[in-house]
Write a structure and sequence with these properties.
The structure is a single chain. The chain is built from nine helices and 15 strands. By secondary structure, it is of the alpha/beta class. The protein has two domains: about 140 residues, NAD(P)-binding Rossmann-like Domain (Rossmann fold, 3-Layer(aba) Sandwich), CATH 3.40.50; about 170 residues, Dihydrodipicolinate Reductase, domain 2 (2-Layer Sandwich), CATH 3.30.360.10. It is globular, with a radius of gyration of 20 Å.
């Protein structure tokens, strides 16, 4: 077995714990240290996962025992942190959204390319079982010509939000849930059907009162291929939701349950039938791929270029919610 890739968890919160929990599940990563602004959070995380503590991100980057960083920090920090890691020779796994602007995404991608370090962006939901099968159904023509797709990825987290956290800062969450949640399906959409060319988006604050944040966003997409898509995302639905449907001239496919279930209704059939879907530990799988790329070479399925393509769509969505107009996606 290749030598383990020694990583640091940077930015300690809920999702950093999800990544840390996934490391023993078949990856070749070893969590050796952690860093965040809160000494209490840092100490608790270090105790739970048996790693060292670093007082700052700068200390992590100077640590010779650290091969790479797992960034789960506020969105606005990503670009500068990725560039700093690259300049320090550290490999980077950064959570989505990669950045909030195309300019920053390109800057961060180029820094990693120039330094020769691996850059992976945490768009893991394309790996979920039903989404992998959907890709095959589209490619082999089982659905005929795809003309439309629709999805909703939402949570109930808005009911628990309190003022003061970075996730309630509109600068970190422009277009509300679209930034940290809906962006998952932007990646899935472009994975399934290629580049999105134009968007028209609307955001509203319907339920949140103490938080200055949009709680609901809806977007219409036009793909370069001509396909029309819709995405809904928000913080204030009754239950966490992740559903996606692809509509073609010869069949329609429906993914549900965090893409763990898939049904297919062919033309002329009265009801949809289940399609076999492989269970996938998508969080561990993307970390394992990151480690393989560091030790064996190659590039991640979602690297800087793919992350930038998703940021281009996000940037257009943010502009559309601001102006109320359809916006072309910058390439």
């Amino acid at each position: 077995m290749a030598e383990r890739v020694r990583v640091a968890a940077v930015g300690i919160g809920w999702w950093s714990g999800e990544l840390a929990d996934a490391i023993p599940r078949g990856t070749n990563l070893a969590l050796v240290t952690c860093a965040t602004r809160s000494p209490e959070k840092r100490a608790a995380f270090a105790t739970k996962y048996g790693c060292r503590q670093a007082e700052s991100y700068e200390a992590v980057l100077k640590d010779p025992e650290v091969d790479g960083v797992l960034l789960t920090t506020p969105h606005t920090l990503h670009a500068d942190q990725v560039v700093a890691a690259a300049e320090a020779g550290k490999h980077v796994f950064v959570e989505k959204p990669f950045t909030l602007t195309v300019a920053d995404a390109r800057r961060a991608t180029e820094a990693c390319r120039r330094a020769g370090v691996v850059l992976a962006v945490g768009h893991g939901r394309r790996r979920q079982g039903a989404n992998r099968v959907l890709k095959k159904l589209i490619q082999d023509g089982s659905l005929g010509r795809v003309v439309q797709l629709e999805a909703n990825i939402s949570s109930d987290s808005g009911f628990k939000m309190k003022p003061g956290g970075w996730r309630t800062d509109p600068r970190e969450q422009p277009a509300g849930a679209m930034t940290g949640l809906g962006i998952h399906h932007v990646d899935t959409y472009q994975y399934l059907l290629g580049p999105i060319a134009r968007v028209a988006a609307f955001s509203a604050r319907q339920v949140l009162r103490d938080i200055d944040l949009y709680d609901t966003t809806g977007i219409i997409f036009k793909f370069a291929s001509g396909v029309i898509g819709y995405l809904g995302t928000g913080f204030v639905v009754a239950n966490r939701t992740n559903v996606l449907a692809v509509h073609g001239t010869e069949g329609q496919a429906f993914a549900e349950g965090e893409a763990s279930r898939l049904t297919l209704r062919k033309k002329g059939e009265s009801q949809a039938s289940p399609v076999a879907v492989q269970a996938v530990d998508w969080i561990a799988e993307q970390l394992a791929e990151f480690g393989r790329c560091v030790r064996e070479g190659g590039r991640p399925e979602v690297g800087g270029d793919e992350g930038t393509a998703n940021v281009a769509v996000l940037e257009a969505i943010i502009e559309s919610t601001r102006t109320g107009k359809a916006v072309l996606v910058e390439r």
